[in-house]
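Why does this matter for the project? Reviewers at the last site visit asked to see concrete outputs rather than summary tables. In response, this paragraph embeds two records directly. Each consists of the residue sequence and, immediately after it, the corresponding structure tokens. Nothing has been edited or filtered.
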Amino acid sequence: MTSLAHSSYDFRAIDWKRIGLFWLLACLISWGGSYMAGALMPAGSWAASRIDTSIPVSLGPLLAGLLVFRRVGPVSWAGSQPLRSWLILALLPLGWLVAAGTGYDITTDALTRNVLFTVSVLVYCVGEEWGWRGFLYEALLPLPVMTRSVVSGLLWFGWHFVFYKDLLNLNFALTFLGMILIGAYGLNAAVTRTRSVAVVVCLHALTKTSLPAPYSWAVIGAIIVLLITWPSNRVTTPVDAETLVPEEH
């Protein structure tokens, strides 16, 4: 006879010192990146009018993760379905090209600007998501799903204070905190299902771009279909697997 051995989530399995170091380095690097962005791409410059100038800020979580954790285990860039991941990533810039090709009233210059800005937003999200949904996601795997989302969400929220001055307004900060916690749960769920950083990069970028309706709804619908039909490939945590143990008599 065999029975399932009882397993519980072990908070002691988390290397909190390393996570704290990761968060501190992410904040320091992003703080420096915010000043770098202002120096290299000041308001009124060519870059400031065409791309997401906060790209240097996103280097914080990425570089901190590389320095502290060095590798990502169950998660990769394209995940368990590379073709799907690349397709999802391409949907936003393709949305603008489809809009222009199907009669949306936009000049060639405006189309170029929007495509360029969308691509730059994706680049920004690469740095941020590799840090929070790549390196940190793996570091928090021993935690329950909801706890993992709350912890990562609070760290992600705190990091924004380094460069997002609007958070000094209490009402806005509380609203933003709610959005961050919901976003952290959703993005963590997407990583768990797809094992792909590229997918969450696109999901994050959706909140920072302005593709016009109905094209934006078409992109969102396509992403939802691709995620719903994604073959189940759940990331297994150290405490998710229940082990069969011989029952003693």
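We now turn to the second protein, recorded in exactly the same manner.
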Amino acid sequence: MASTVSLCMCLMFVCLCDCVLVAVTPTKTCRSTDVRKVIWLKFLVTVNDTWDPDGCIATVLTPRLIPGKEYNKSESVRVGRCDKGPLWFNISEAGIKESHAMNVDLIFFSSVVEDASPPTCRIPWNGTYLTPKTTMANESLLPGCFVMDSREGYHMTYYWFHVIDWMFG
């Protein structure tokens, strides 16, 4: 039986696979089943609530969160006085045509968003911090995503989620 083979780009970051270097190119070939299991992740979560007349922008470091935990069993995250709620995420292998190894799909069950779906976004991730590609200081080296939601169709709440720490099994 033939095994499924995919390519891992191993230039400028640590490859997540047990791979064999092919000639002198920066590309390694590995089986897609070699992607390591994520045991836990920590996130930086930032919330900017524009509905608060005094303004509310806060950032918090989450505790270690376990992927795939049921919504009602996931830990509630308090982001200053701006928002709170369970943060659920799951890890999936990236598609063949994607340039990263995995996706971190997350949902923040916000106490602020009452009349819409909870903030949801996807973080494309290689299991490492990002490598700078420019000299621009505003480029984050943390894998992350951004989403915004409207409270009652008027005030916007902005959310940033960044992977800051992790453990593979």
